[in-house]
Each structure stands twice: as C-alpha cells, then as structure tokens.
Amino acid sequence: MEATLGLQVSLASLEKQLICPICLEIFNKPVVILPCQHNLCRKCANELYQPSLFQARTSMLVNSGRFRCPSCRHEVVLDRHGVYGLQRNLLVENIIDVYKQELARQSLPRTSLCLAQATCVDHEGEKVNIYCLSCRVPTCSLCKVFGAHQSCRVAPLADVYQQQKVGMKYLTKFWIFNDSLASHCERESRS
C-alpha cells in the first residue's frame, strides 16, 4: 500500500511537469520545444502565433513571425515555416507515453491523483473532497456536516478544480493577447 502511495505521489509530481502552460492539460502531441527550452503543444503554439480577430479587424501587423513564450516571456522568432519549423520534443513525448502507460496500469483517473492525496487535518484519514465557497478552502465532508463549515456553501472539489482550470486558460489567453498588443504598439511607436 505504501509503495502504491509513493508511486501515486511520483506520478502526480511528474504530471505537473507535463502540463502545457496554454491549455493547462498534459501536452498533446506533437510537443514543440521553444528556443528558451520550454515546451508547448503544437496546437497551442499555433494559437499563440495566429493573429487575433482584433488584430485582423484593426489592420495591425498580422503576421510578424513572433510570439512570446508563455512561461518565461522570451521572444520566439519563427522562420518561414512558422510553428511547423519548431523542433518536436521527442523526449517529452516519450515521457508522456510512459506516464500514460503507468497511469493505465495503476487504473487511476489522472485528475484525481493530486486530489486523492490530501486528508483533513481535523478529521484524521478523511479525504479532502469538497471546497468551501464561503471560506475559499478545500475541506472534507465531515467538516461540512459536523465541523467548522456547517453553515457554509460548498461544492465538490473536482468541480471547483475544473472551473478554476478553465478560468486560468482564459486568463492566460487574455494575458498573451495583451502582451502581443503591447509589443505591436511598441513596434509601431518606434517606426
């Protein structure tokens, strides 16, 4: 049992390293490596590179061949092949394959690995499975029924996790758009 728990913790730790900073999911193949050594799903890199509708409508510079890495803000300059000129990271793709095989062997759902580890500090051995919307903290069911969160509004922790993940995805896209707009304005002011 202890070895299985150790493997689950290791898999959860590995999963954090395999998350795309754009879609916030495990990298989808093909995975591309940027000059700054960060990785993206090619699909996500393509979304970063594509001009936004706003840029197209305001006749700004549409195809500059550049974007910024969402992890470190390093400017990525693309050649004539665009995103398809970026190198694939076969090592990361192979690690993802091994990770998914091990996950299937363990027959554990991917999204529950991290959540399955947390236990309540007030109720020994009780899994943290709900989120207190009033206090904005994860907690266990016993805290809701008998403890400090009896009068609070709660939701299933997995549901709140999914909502937060979707919210972060939109914030990331807004941040990237805002950065590309600022870069464009800066280039325009210099010319």
From TrEMBL:
<dbReference type="InterPro" id="IPR027370">
    <property type="entry name" value="Znf-RING_euk"/>
</dbReference>
<protein>
    <submittedName>
        <fullName>Tripartite motif containing 101</fullName>
    </submittedName>
</protein>
<feature type="domain" description="B box-type">
    <location>
        <begin position="115"/>
        <end position="157"/>
    </location>
</feature>
<keyword id="KW-0479">Metal-binding</keyword>
<dbReference type="Pfam" id="PF13445">
    <property type="entry name" value="zf-RING_UBOX"/>
</dbReference>
<dbReference type="InterPro" id="IPR047153">
    <property type="entry name" value="TRIM45/56/19-like"/>
</dbReference>
<dbReference type="InterPro" id="IPR000315">
    <property type="entry name" value="Znf_B-box"/>
</dbReference>
<dbReference type="InterPro" id="IPR001841">
    <property type="entry name" value="Znf_RING"/>
</dbReference>
<dbReference type="GO" id="GO:0005737">
    <property type="term" value="C:cytoplasm"/>
</dbReference>
<dbReference type="Pfam" id="PF00643">
    <property type="entry name" value="zf-B_box"/>
</dbReference>
<keyword id="KW-0862">Zinc</keyword>
<keyword id="KW-0863">Zinc-finger</keyword>
<dbReference type="InterPro" id="IPR013083">
    <property type="entry name" value="Znf_RING/FYVE/PHD"/>
</dbReference>
<dbReference type="GO" id="GO:0008270">
    <property type="term" value="F:zinc ion binding"/>
</dbReference>
<dbReference type="InterPro" id="IPR017907">
    <property type="entry name" value="Znf_RING_CS"/>
</dbReference>
<dbReference type="GO" id="GO:0005654">
    <property type="term" value="C:nucleoplasm"/>
</dbReference>
<feature type="domain" description="RING-type">
    <location>
        <begin position="20"/>
        <end position="73"/>
    </location>
</feature>
<dbReference type="GO" id="GO:0061630">
    <property type="term" value="F:ubiquitin protein ligase activity"/>
</dbReference>
